[in-house]
Specification:
Distance between the termini: 103 Å
Number of strands: 0
Largest sheet: none
Number of helices: 10
Strand content: under 5%
Helix content: over 70%
Order of helices and strands: HHHHHHHHHH
Shape: globular
Radius of gyration: 28 Å
Length: 352
């Protein structure tokens, strides 16, 4: 309490220092805002890894249990070791995508003006070695299921093609580790051709089906792997938003044609392999419907990312949408692996 005379009502007075003020001081406001910003940043830093772990766990569950769930109630024969085979083929497809993407994306990066001179670390060697190990694992599984020795398994059609795939990926890893990584294109082309032949053992026009698979698998690998490399580079260039936005724009142009190739070859393959009377009653038909639903989500995310890229100067929103597109594309890779494992739907079709 003040002991002096009462103050003049017209004269402004300072608040009593013994009474806490409801309005924080300037330093206190800065501390609060900085603390809230740090807490929000910490929350965001934990969100991305948790979402990636959840997506990885979901992809593993789809690979392990997807073939069985899709075949439930169809009356089709059970495929021995279908879950493990799906996991191994998912690794193989991912390896192709990572390596081919690393061969495509640098061609898009070089013309970007004002780009930082930093580059992301290459994953091509590890990816190809993992793909070779996955192909070797399929050979071991085939030998166990067929009750054959490893050398005898090499003599079968599928075993010989898997051996060619494993060796091709091993050679691609050596090329990636050399001073001329572009040489890996040749062994990767052999791998894609061998996988296309392996995926079409049927008696009805296998050459046409293999040709469609070559185009489809190449386009899918370039799209998925190229997008991952571009997103990694954009994160590295987050201090240069103009260059990051230009890079995403350069990727969007070939991605349109890759999407067209995927849609055309996928439609032709579906019409060729899936009889219409078993679309909902075969494992292949159900898996294909799931893949189409995921591709619809990918299409929406890709269009939204392109729209925000053209409208905004800050590429952060487009980058976030493209990251979500990448996650869904990863699910598409796993579902595509399931498609290669489930039985041929012609066996249960009533059509001649």
């Amino acid at each position: 309490m003040f002991s002096g005379p009462p103050a003049d009502p017209a004269t402004p007075t300072m608040p009593d220092s013994s009474v806490p003020s409801a309005v924080p001081l300037a330093g206190e406001t800065g501390g609060i805002s900085e603390g809230a910003s740090a807490a929000a940043s910490a929350g965001r830093s934990w969100t991305a890894p948790l979402l990636l772990c959840a997506a990885g766990a979901l992809a593993l569950l789809i690979a392990l249990f997807g073939p069985g769930l899709m075949a439930r109630g169809t009356g089709e024969l059970r495929i021995p070791g279908a879950g493990l085979t799906t996991v191994l083929r998912s690794v193989l497809f991912a390896a192709l995508a990572l390596h081919l993407g690393e061969l495509l994306a640098p061609q898009l990066i070089r013309p970007v003006r004002g780009r930082p001179r930093t580059a992301v670390r290459s994953w091509a060697v590890l990816a190809s070695l993992a793909g070779a190990a996955a192909a070797a694992g399929q050979i071991v599984r085939l030998a166990a299921v067929s009750d054959l020795g490893i050398t005898e398994t090499y003599g079968t059609r599928e075993g010989g093609l898997l051996l060619l795939i494993a060796n091709g990926l091993a050679v691609a890893a050596l090329c990636a580790a050399s001073r001329r990584p572009a040489l890996a294109l040749a062994p990767l082309a052999v791998v894609i051709g061998a996988e296309a032949l392996r995926a079409h053992p049927e008696a009805y026009s296998p050459e046409f089906g293999a040709a469609l698979t070559v185009v489809h698998l190449t386009a899918a690998s370039l799209w998925t792997g190229g997008l991952l490399y571009v997103l990694r580079t954009m994160w590295l260039w987050r201090g240069s938003p103009v260059a990051a936005r230009a890079l995403l724009g350069r990727y969007a142009r070939p991605a349109i044609w890759l999407y067209v190739a995927l849609a055309a070859t996928g439609t032709a393959s579906a019409l060729r392999r899936l009889p219409l009377d078993v679309v909902f009653t075969s494992a292949y038909g159900r898996t294909l419907l799931l893949k189409l639903a995921l591709m619809a989500v990918v299409s929406v995310l890709a269009l939204a990312a392109r729209r925000r890229m053209l409208r905004d100067t800050d590429p952060s929103v487009a980058h976030r949408l493209a990251r979500r597109e990448q996650v869904v594309l990863g699910m598409v890779v796993v579902v595509s692996a399931v498609l290669t494992v489930v039985p041929d739907p012609h066996w249960i079709s009533l059509r001649p």
